[in-house]
Here is the input.
Amino acid sequence: MEATTQDRIRQQVTETPVVLFMKGTPVFPQCGFSAAVVQILSHMGIKFKGIDVLSDPGVRQGIKEFSNWPTIPQLYIKGEFIGGCDIIREMFETGELKQLFEGKGVPVRA
Amino acid sequence: MAMDAAEIERLIKAALPDAQVTIEDLRGDGDHYAAHVVSGAFLGKSRVQQHQLVYQALGARMGGQLHALALQTSAPEE
Here is the structure.
């Protein structure tokens, strides 16, 4: 039986602790907003999995329905949707992002 | 694909009538905006929920017609 896109997304965000749905890859982001979040995560030394929505139109649409959130990038920690670029940037600046990662047991370097 | 700043403000206020909306056209090209929205509707809500309210107000335009809207939301100061 073929899993639906929603099931597939749910599986992806629960089987890896930190998942970023983005345009392009962590090495070659295709959008400034995705690049900004990759930069923050890299700076913090967070190990994460990048999922390129440009290579999968089903996921590109499906992830927006999954989170009721219209834009990419989208960051998930332990299955929970944390936010898009603006929220991640704001949380990084206030130190909340570090607290959140640590609270969820994800090692942070910086 | 561009959208007028006044139209963005109108849509947000239609959904959140008490909202104070400040919109900045970041590049002067009618395509890259930053919006700061203050509304009592945000009280007690998480950032994700606050942004979702604004996205709902903008409907299908967000992510389509409106690619670049940097969003900042807050509840009114006590």
Observations:
- The beta strands of chain B are 20-25, 32-38, 68-74.
- Chain B touches chain A at residues 47-48, 51-52, 55, 62-63, 68, 70-72 (CB under 8 Å).
